[in-house]
Every structure is written in structure tokens, then in C-alpha cells.
Amino acid sequence: SAVISQKPSRDICQRGTSLTIQCQVDSQVTMMFWYRQQPGQSLTLIATANQGSEATYESGFVIDKFPISRPNLTFSTLTVSNMSPEDSSIYLCSGGGQGAQGYGYTFGSGTRLTVV
Amino acid sequence: GNSVTQMEGPVTLSEEAFLTINCTYTATGYPSLFWYVQYPGEGLQLLLKATKADDKGSNKGFEATYRKETTSFHLEKGSVQVSDSAVYFCALSVIQGAQKLVFGQGTRLTINP
């Protein structure tokens, strides 16, 4: 299965600034996803990163706050914009799948973001 | 809608004890089911999966059986080790054009020597 390198692994940011998180996959993958894991909670899907087109966002998440790029089948970025302390979370990217049901997705190691 | 409910944690066991973490789901359609593990300070790793009813997923001594009649996918291990201490997530995916994962709330497991 694919291996995903995610960076940065952690950051402490000032409120009002933006942070871009990168995920690099070691092979081409059909689907890439971005998740948020708030402290002590489960993972919530932010959006599906579509290659060559705009990302598809889940309810409660908007492009202005979480712009996503996916220029090719091995790379994606998530930007957390105009940050507030409520954005402090772990952000994870995930990739995999070739359309076959049951394919287990690989996750990056996560970016632990603290907004002060 | 699609949802996953996991046994509430935290769970604390002694080494070599038997482990069960309950997971039930609701889904529109025929889901695939997964268990992921998150070790301290790390991302998620796929532990095991099952794609159809009565399938048993297994890995590293863990196993779970896809039970359609009870909509369950309970995780079990016969003899846990200290190194199994982690957070365990049950998840499902349903093909709807994009195979998004829906996660349970996670169960923190601590194994004492």
C-alpha cells in the first residue's frame, strides 16, 4: 500500500495567520482526503481532494477556511486560514483506493497544530 | 445516514488479558468495515478490514468478524501486550462515488504490565 509523508509534523501558530500542510504519496493514488481530529475526539472528514478540480467539502467546512490543492496524483496541500484557537487539532491526510470497495486507506502521520 | 458507535473508553487491562472492543454501525448500502490503530504521537494505521458479511479480518493477533445480522464488527485479541496500548478506531466506508471513511469515536486502550 502507499506510503504518505506529511509535514510539518507539528506547529505552533499565532491567531490570524495561515498554515499549509503538505502530503506526498510515494505512488499515484486515486483518492485523497483531509481529516481533522480535535483533542480527544474522533476523525472528521474535511474534504475530498480531487486531482485537477476543486475539492469537495463536507458540511461545516468551506473552501475559504480550508483551501485545498491537488495538482497531481501524488501530492496535496491543505491550508488552515485565518486561524483561531478553535482550529487547534491534528490534521491528517489519507490516500488510496482504485475504486474497489474495501481498500484500506493509508494515512499520513498527522500535523499537530496549536493556535495561540 | 452512516455512523459508527464504539465502546466507550478508556479501557485498562493487564498484560495477557482478553480484549474485546465493541463496534456497531448503521449504513445505507453495504459497507466495508475497518479497524485502525493510533499509537501515541503517530498517525492512523490500518489494523484489519472486512468487506462482506461473515468475513473475518485478522492481523497481529487481533481479529474482527463482519456480522451483518447484528451490524457489528467487534475487535478481539486473546492475549494483549503492553505494546498494544493505543487508541483504536472502528470505521466504515460505503461506495457513493468517493470512499469516505466514517469513524467511531475511538477507544483508548492501556495495558499494564
What does this protein structure show overall?
The complex is a heterodimer of chains A (116) and B (113). Chain A is an all-beta fold and 116 residues long. In chain A, 0% of the residues lie in helices and 49% in strands. Chain A is built from no helices and eleven strands. In chain A, the strands form two sheets. In chain A, strands 2, 4, 5, 6, 9, 10 and 11 form a seven-stranded mixed β-sheet that branches. In chain A, strands 1-3-8-7 form a four-stranded antiparallel β-sheet, with no helix packed on it. Chain A is globular, with a radius of gyration of 13 Å. In chain A, 38% of the residues are buried. With 113 residues, chain B is an all-beta fold. Chain B has strands at residues 3-6, 11-14, 19-21, 23-26, 32-38, 44-50, 56-59, 62-65, 75-77, 86-93, 101-103, 107-112. In chain B, the strands form three sheets. In chain B, strands 2, 5, 6, 10, 11 and 12 form a six-stranded mixed β-sheet that branches. A four-stranded antiparallel β-sheet of chain B has the order 3-9-8-7, with no helix packed on it. The model of chain B has no long low-confidence stretch (mean pLDDT 91). Chain A binds chain B through residues 1, 6, 31, 33, 41-45, 48, 56, 92, 94, 97, 101-110, and chain B through 32, 34, 36, 42-46, 49-51, 89, 93, 95, 98-106.
